[in-house]
Each structure stands twice: as C-alpha cells, then as structure tokens.
Design goal:
about 200 residues; 6-stranded mixed sheet; 6 strands; binds inosinic acid
Length: about 200
C-alpha cells in the first residue's frame, strides 16, 4: 500500500484538516508546496464532485502518486443554493475570503430563512485505474455577524445545527468531528480500507 498521498490544494487550512484525519491510518499527507508542485487546475465543473476530480487528476498526472482533492462550498437555501460551487469565487475578482463573507451577509440582510449547509466532495486518484469518491455535509444556519477567528472562509458566519458556536469559534478537532470535510474524509477512509482489503485478498 502506498502510504504517501498528495493533497491537491493550495489552501493550508485544508492540508491541516486532511493530515489530522488521515494520519491515524498511517498515511503521510504531503502538500503541493512540500512536493514543489505548482498546479492551479481550472475548476470548469458544475458540481463539487466534478471539480474535485479535475483537481486531483491534474496533480496525479504530474506526480503519479495517490492524490486527494476536495471541492467544497457553502449552499444557502434562501439564495437557491448559492454560492455553491462558486463559493471561492463569490462576487468575482477583487474579493478576498473576508470580503466574500461580508458580501454573503449583505446579500442575506433581508432574509429570515438563514438555513445553509457546507458540502465537501472528495476525489482520490489512487492509480491509473482507480478513483475513489466521497461526499460529506454539515447543516446549520448563517449568523448575522461574524464570530470567531479559527478556520477560514465562511466559518465565522456558520452556526452548525445544535451548536451555539460558529465553526470559527471551534478548535480544529471539534470542527473536524462534525464538518463536511471531516464527514467526507471519514467516508473516504472507509472506502480506502475496503479497497485495500479487496486488493490484499487478490
Ligand atoms: P475550493 O477550494 O474551491 O473547494 O473552495 C471552497 C470555498 O468554500 C472556500 O474558499 C471557502 O470560501 C468555502 N469553504 C469550503 N470549506 C469551508 C470550511 O470548512 N469553512 C469555511 N469556508 C469553507
């Protein structure tokens, strides 16, 4: 079993979340930065799953090592699921993470229905023949003001169902335990174990 997996993201927060969850499996996660790989594949897909695969395959083609990518975003009910796959590009150029968060708050100013969820779709190109996919969610609602400084992106305005803290007020481990990416990664780990189990029986 190949124990070195490349994490196809330029987002250092995602690398930390992946490492924490995959380390107990004995998997060494290396980032694009650590591998010296420069790759910013264009996300031309219309679903999280398509974009995750595009990102993983682009890096796999460069290094030929098992490569995992996640495509994620926040879907807001009152906005018909927006920003969705466009979460990282919400509002177009000229906005940073914080700017996009305030833009979302502004676009939600008049909305009483604050329901929203994050989705994370994971694609792992294991080798030339095998791709594993997994998806995870976390449901909650948007606050009216940002709270907390942990995490990234829309974390300061996302209150998971059943919690009084935003995901930006939670420690990393607590967020991983309930987050979309944590849930997707746990499903991915199960699929990976099944794959290696079947493979070792052959
Ligand atoms: P991606 O790198 O194309 O998957 O971009 C996903 C975008 O969705 C990020 O830039 C964030 O704005 C948002 N996002 C995804 N996951 C999270 C999260 O765990 N917390 C906060 N924002 C997130």
């Amino acid at each position: 079993m190949e124990k070195k997996f490349v994490i196809a993201t330029n987002n250092p927060h995602k690398v930390v979340e992946f490492k924490k969850i995959l380390a107990p499996l004995g998997i060494e996660c290396v980032s694009l930065k650590e591998m010296g790989i420069v790759c910013d594949a264009e996300e031309t897909g219309t679903t999280f799953a398509e974009n995750a695969y595009i990102k993983a395959k682009a890096v796999y083609d460069i290094c030929k090592l098992p490569t995992v990518a996640d495509d994620s975003g926040i879907c807001v009910d009152a906005l018909g699921g927006e920003p969705g796959v466009y979460s990282a590009r919400y509002g177009g150029e000229g906005y940073d993470d914080e700017g996009r968060m305030y833009l979302l708050l502004k676009n939600m100013e008049q909305q009483e229905n604050r329901a929203a969820h994050f989705t994370s779709s994971i694609s792992c190109v294991l080798n030339d023949e095998t791709v594993l996919n997994a998806e995870g969610y976390i449901f909650g609602r948007l606050t009216r003001e940002p709270r907390g400084t942990n995490g990234f992106g829309y974390d300061p305005i996302f209150l998971p169902d059943g919690y009084s803290m935003t995901t930006a007020e939670m420690e990393g481990e607590a967020k991983n335990a309930i987050s979309h990416r944590g849930n997707a990664l746990r499903e991915f780990v199960l699929k990976l174990k099944e794959y290696y189990h079947a493979y070792s029986d052959q």
